[in-house]
């Protein structure tokens, strides 16, 4: 088993493991912590833009997410080269040992080559990357293990989120503060807050019913003090509007729903209450019961494109998942 120092500490603390170190790398100098300051700057900048409803906050979010991916980048094993047609034969002769495939570019005098790329010069910053991953797990372990020690029920957990009873949150936050000396609830780095979108601004949404089908596939029926109803849906690889469209087609007798992109929630139409039968809930119940359902991603309001090796682009008419 390969671990870094953060994971090893957590294994000992939370699992009580005893281990023998066979071999490894260690650093006898000071650790470079400058990345913390840079991440904090970006995080605060995103909060500022988000408060202003500036779409730049999405760019900052992508930059923050890419820090981990870039530091632990997998080897790049191929590269693309474009040469003039008049030089293509000479280029092929000189590089034939590395060429995977080649093709002429439509409407041009260029040829595109795909070649194998040696990983001898590949570089990443995995000592930092594995620390980022381990620290993200530690942040979650602190909360999960505290909840488990208290006998609280966690219904679903993901990389950075969990589902638990709303009334248990104050008890969990108090115990967390006692153990770690930090505030659990908030919107700063390392803190947690409700991720459910508000149906009406200023009115907190809570999950009245939930169906968990598997990893990154679940639905929450949201309601608030005004007895409004909406749905928080997740299904990895399937667009939100396709989920609603498929549910409405499969269960036309149920309350129909549509996806509100601005609020990032699904809204039912017609007359209903929180105990009505909704098409979305019936869809997830069918998945939970083991029914196989095909989703055509091309039914989305956004077109599906297929980009070919020679850079030509076609519109897909069907993409079943």
TrEMBL record:
Any one GO BP annotation for this protein: DNA replication
Catalytic activity: DNA(n) + a 2'-deoxyribonucleoside 5'-triphosphate = DNA(n+1) + diphosphate
GO MF: DNA binding; DNA-directed DNA polymerase activity; nucleotide binding
EC number: 2.7.7.7
Gene3D superfamilies with a match to the protein in the record: Palm domain of DNA polymerase
Domain of life: Eukaryota
One Pfam family, short name: DNA_pol_B_2
Database matches in InterPro entries: DNA-dir_DNA_pol_B_mt/vir, DNA/RNA_pol_sf, DNA_pol_palm_dom_sf
Keywords: DNA replication, DNA-binding, DNA-directed DNA polymerase, Nucleotidyltransferase, Transferase
Domain spans labelled DNA-directed DNA polymerase family B mitochondria/virus: 13-95
Family: Belongs to the DNA polymerase type-B family.
Protein name: DNA-directed DNA polymerase
Organism per entry: Trichomonas vaginalis (strain ATCC PRA-98 / G3)
